[in-house]
Amino acid sequence: MLNSRFSYSALQRVARAGKPHKLLPSSRRYATLSTFFQHEPSQPSIKTELPGPIALQMRTDLNDVFDTRSLNMLVDYKKSHGNYLADPDGNILLDVFAQIASIAVGYNNPHLEQASKDPAMVRSLINRPALGNFPDAEYAEILRTGILQAAPPGMNQVFTASTGSDANETAYKAAIMWKAQQNRGGPEVEFTPEEMSSSMLNKAPGAPNHSILSFHGGFHGRTFGSLSTTRSKPIHKLDIPAFDWPAAPFPKLRYPLHEFEAENTAEERRCLQETEKLIQEFHNPVAAVIVEPIQSEGGDNHASPAFFQALRELTLRNNVLLIVDEVQTGVGATGKFWAHEHWDLSIPPDMVTFSKKAQAAGYYFREPSLRPNKPYRQFNTWMGDPARAILFRAILEEITTKDLVAHTAKTGKYLFDQLEQLSSKYPGEILNLRGKDRGTFIAFDSPRRDELIKRAKSSGVNLGGCGDRAVRLRPMLVFQEHHANILLEKLEDLIRQ
Asked: Which family is this protein grouped under (predicted)?
């Protein structure tokens, strides 16, 4: 959808700057380019080696006071616009990773900039409330007009948090308190003296041995509770004590899907059977199952809607909660606002956690029994941030005004179709392409993944990896077909080299 504030002459300048690439079919050549950003570059521009001399010096300076070993690149955010990142040396990159999938509507988005100047935002920033004790008198209105406007179907309450890990951690607490409350006989039953004294020794019955079941390949955060459910990479978990919690197999689908329907159905059935067996037999009783709609850090692993429908039925049958971790998949990236909407569940999940593109964090829920029976049981000083809630409201306004979820579904279809053609042309280079009908939440395996990502950056495209050899695409909701064409050109160039 074209923003009416942008002039026709500006669009002409953008269109003239986009030159067709000789390797691309005419369907992928740049036509007249619309844009959501007046000052967005028309294409990448690389002036130095990456990192350049200024960035190298700045990195050395930063490393004196901050660990830079995981640094991807230093960014000049003043000069970054829309889908493009700038670095201190003046290099401009098309960003198809978006701050690990956490930027929804582009760098220096004008609507978000305007929202940041709202007096309510300023008050929240300079007087950051301890929300559990001293919430802003307007906080209910902030939530109802923002975060709760985005609530998944069937959900009408939220517990706000600070990060994705924090969102999952507090969801686990809610689930375990719910299960203990059931075992105790209901929310009105008081704690016994034995429960209170044993909890101070980290022992049962006050500190029961309930567990949260997660899936192999899943990633749910790096705090202690969330880390106990993370099963993606050893580097996250090494040296850290963990809860004795179960992990079920997640389906390992074969691609292309239409050629392996029987095998994939059997694989999903096997994983579901093992999941139910763990719920019924694991020595630490399971209070909840947590699952990502698409395992992101673990390699962009997918399962069918039928798998998740059966998982929902399985959790109901065994009286455990279903937590859907939408930290990375939520807020429009899959062509629906929440990825689990693709499943067509008859009964919604019990909790949905969110963060990243929302620029806020927390979990949605619907059952009043998921509120602890006493105050201070689900509590910390900040309990989220009203400034971030206001920002999420502005993001929602931008998404709604520009119809960005539908836009992302359309752009994702175009990008997937073009990648499918590239995959057929270079079958040894683009493997296991996945994400069909999931917006721009697309990935493929590469036999030389790390080299490909490094060379893509040097050519002006910032990509991300996950799992052992997956290239994951995480563009923003303002990513358009002409951005896709640039990405496709660069990929084909790199593959051919």
From this structure: Belongs to the class-III pyridoxal-phosphate-dependent aminotransferase family.
